[in-house]
Design brief:
about 475 residues; alpha/beta; Beta-lactamase; D-tyrosyl-trna(Tyr) Deacylase, Chain: A; 3 domains; five-stranded antiparallel sheet; 11 helices; about 25% helix; about 25% strand; globular; disordered N terminus
C-alpha cells in the first residue's frame, strides 16, 4: 500500500470503526436483514465535521449496475465529455454511372446509439452522392474491437435485451421490438423492424385475470429453417394486459445489420442483392463515402446511468480500451485496466474485480469504502456535473421514476441503482434538508435482496434529516 492510500485511510473519520448511531440501528433492527448481508455509507461533503456513518465497509459485495458509476467516470476522465463515436461508410472498386462495382464497407466503432433511423439517413446521404446500385457485397469491418466471447452465459434468458453482448457494430441495440395486443379476441404479435427472413409463430393462449408480471408468463425461442429465423412465442397473456412491448435479441449481430441495410437500401430506391462479408482487418484505407457521428459522451452517459443500459456501458468501456491503450480490446483486459486507473487516482482497489462495464456479472466485486472514495473523487472533479446529471433523480426519472414518489427526499437525490437476482444496490448524492450534500451508498447480497427497497429508503430518509 503506497503513501497516498495510507494517507486517505488516515483521513477517514474514526467513525469508520465506531458504533452506528442509534437511529440507524433502529432501522436495521426493523428490517431484519442479516447484518453481514449489506453495507451502507453516509458521508456529509458539506459539513466535514459530521461523523462518517459506515457499515461493512471493507467487505466485498457484488454491486450489480453500480459498476456503471466506475465505467462512466473512467470514460469521461479518459475520453472527455466531448468524445463522439464515428461510424464510416467506405467502398472499394469504382463507381460508374451510379453503380458501385465493388463492395460497400461499414466500419463500426462501438456506437451503441446507432439506430435504424440513423442508418436510413446515412443510406439516403450516400445515394444522393450518386450511388444507387451495389454490384458487390456488404463488408462489416469489426476490427475496432477484438473477438470478444459470443457466449451469453449470465442467465438462462439469452434473448433478453440486457444480455446483448458488446460489438463494434450496433443497430437498434441489436434487438427487435415486439408489440403484443388483442384484436377481435385474438392475440396479435407485430415486430419492428419487419424483415423478410423473420417469421413469427404465435402459440400464446389468452387468459383472464390481473396483468401481473406478464413477461414471466410468456416463453420464446428461435428456430432456423433454411434462410428463415422462426421466433416461437408461447405461454399465457392476460386480456387485461392490453398493449405491451418487449425487446428481444433475435438475430446474430452481423446478420441483423445486413438484413436491415439490405431492406433500407432497396426501399430507398437503390439496388443491392449482394452477400454479407465480415472482416477483422482494418478497412479504413478504403475510399470514404460518409461518416456518421454520434452524440457526445456527456449525453450518452445519461442514457447509460439513468436507464442502466448494459450494451452501451459495455461498449463504452471497450471504447476506452481502444482509444487509450495498444492492447487487444477485450473485456478480459478490463480488470487490469481499471486497477491501473484506480492506482493512478490513488484509490484503494484491493479485492476489486471488474468483469464488464455494465456490472452484469456474478464475479464483479467491490467494497463500499472503495465506492465511497471514488464518489468523493467524482464530487471534487471539475467534470463532476457531467456524472452527477447522469444519475436518476429520486421520484422523477430513469430507474427511479416509479420509486420514492412520496418520500421526504423526492427530487433531492441523484442515485444510480443496481439489481439482479440476490443483489440490490443504490448509490449517489443526496441534498439533505439543511442543504448539505451527502454521499449515500447501499448494497445488499441476500436471497431477499429485491425486498430491500423500503430498507434503503428508510436509511436515505434518516440521512436526509
Amino acid at each position: 500500500m503506497n503513501f497516498f492510500r495510507i494517507l486517505i485511510l488516515c483521513l477517514l473519520p474514526f467513525s469508520v470503526f465506531a458504533e452506528l448511531p442509534l437511529e440507524y440501528k433502529k432501522i436495521i433492527k426493523k428490517y431484519k436483514f442479516p447484518s453481514n448481508s449489506f453495507t451502507f455509507a453516509v458521508k456529509n461533503l458539506t459539513n466535514t465535521a459530521e461523523p462518517l456513518i459506515i457499515h461493512n465497509e471493507k467487505k466485498l459485495f457484488n454491486s450489480a449496475s453500480l459498476i456503471k458509476i466506475i465505467s462512466t467516470y473512467i470514460a469521461i476522465d479518459k475520453l472527455g465529455p466531448q468524445f463522439k463515436w464515428k461510424s464510416d461508410f467506405l467502398y472499394n472498386g469504382k463507381v460508374v454511372n451510379g453503380t458501385l462495382k465493388g463492395d460497400l464497407i461499414f466500419k463500426g466503432r462501438g456506437d451503441a446509439t446507432f439506430t435504424i433511423a440513423k442508418l436510413e439517413d446515412s443510406i439516403r446521404k450516400i445515394q444522393r452522392k450518386g450511388i444507387k446500385k451495389i454490384k458487390g457485397n456488404l463488408i462489416l469491418d469489426l476490427s475496432y474491437f477484438a473477438m470478444n466471447s459470443k457466449e451469453k452465459n449470465f442467465d438462462n434468458d439469452p434473448m433478453r435485451a440486457y444480455n446483448v453482448l458488446p460489438h463494434p457494430i450496433v443497430i437498434q441495440s441489436n434487438t427487435m421490438n415486439f408489440v403484443f395486443s388483442i384484436e377481435k379476441n385474438n392475440f396479435k404479435i407485430e415486430s419492428n423492424p419487419e424483415l423478410d427472413n423473420i417469421e413469427i409463430q404465435n402459440n400464446v393462449k389468452l387468459t383472464k385475470g390481473r396483468c401481473i408480471d406478464w413477461r414471466s408468463k410468456l416463453n420464446y425461442g428461435t428456430e432456423k429453417n433454411n434462410f428463415k429465423t422462426i421466433i416461437i412465442f408461447g405461454g399465457k397473456y392476460s386480456r387485461n394486459c392490453g398493449v405491451k412491448e418487449f425487446d428481444l435479441s433475435v438475430l446474430e449481430e452481423n446478420e441483423y445489420f445486413y438484413r436491415i441495410f439490405k431492406k433500407l437500401w432497396n426501399t430507398n430506391g437503390g439496388e443491392f442483392d449482394g452477400n454479407l462479408d465480415v472482416s477483422y482487418i482494418d478497412q479504413s484505407d478504403s475510399k470514404i463515402l460518409y461518416s456518421h457521428i454520434s452524440r457526445p459522451l456527456s449525453e450518452i452517459v445519461r442514457d447509460i446511468n439513468k436507464y442502466s443500459l448494459n450494451l452501451m456501458a459495455r461498449n463504452t468501456m471497450l471504447t476506452v480500451l481502444a482509444e487509450d491503450t495498444d492492447s487487444l480490446v477485450l473485456e478480459t483486459s478490463l480488470n487490469q485496466y481499471v486497477h491501473q486507473w484506480f492506482e493512478k487516482k490513488d484509490l484503494i482497489h484491493e479485492g476489486l474485480f471488474f468483469e464488464n462495464g455494465a456490472g452484469l456479472s456474478r464475479k464483479s466485486f467491490l467494497t463500499s469504502e472503495q465506492l465511497l472514495l471514488l464518489m468523493e473523487k467524482i464530487y471534487y472533479d471539475p467534470l463532476m456535473p457531467e456524472i452527477l446529471a447522469s444519475f436518476p433523480i429520486s421520484g422523477i426519472d430513469g430507474t427511479l421514476k416509479r420509486r420514492m414518489n412520496y418520500s421526504s427526499f423526492k427530487k433531492s437525490g441523484h442515485f444510480k441503482t443496481g439489481s439482479m437476482r440476490e443483489v440490490n444496490s443504490i448509490a449517489g448524492f443526496l441534498l439533505d434538508k439543511n442543504k448539505d450534500m451527502k454521499i449515500f451508498i447501499f448494497i445488499i447480497n441476500d436471497i431477499k435482496a429485491k425486498e430491500s427497497h423500503n430498507f434503503q429508503e428508510a436509511l436515505i430518509s434518516e440521512a436526509f434529516k
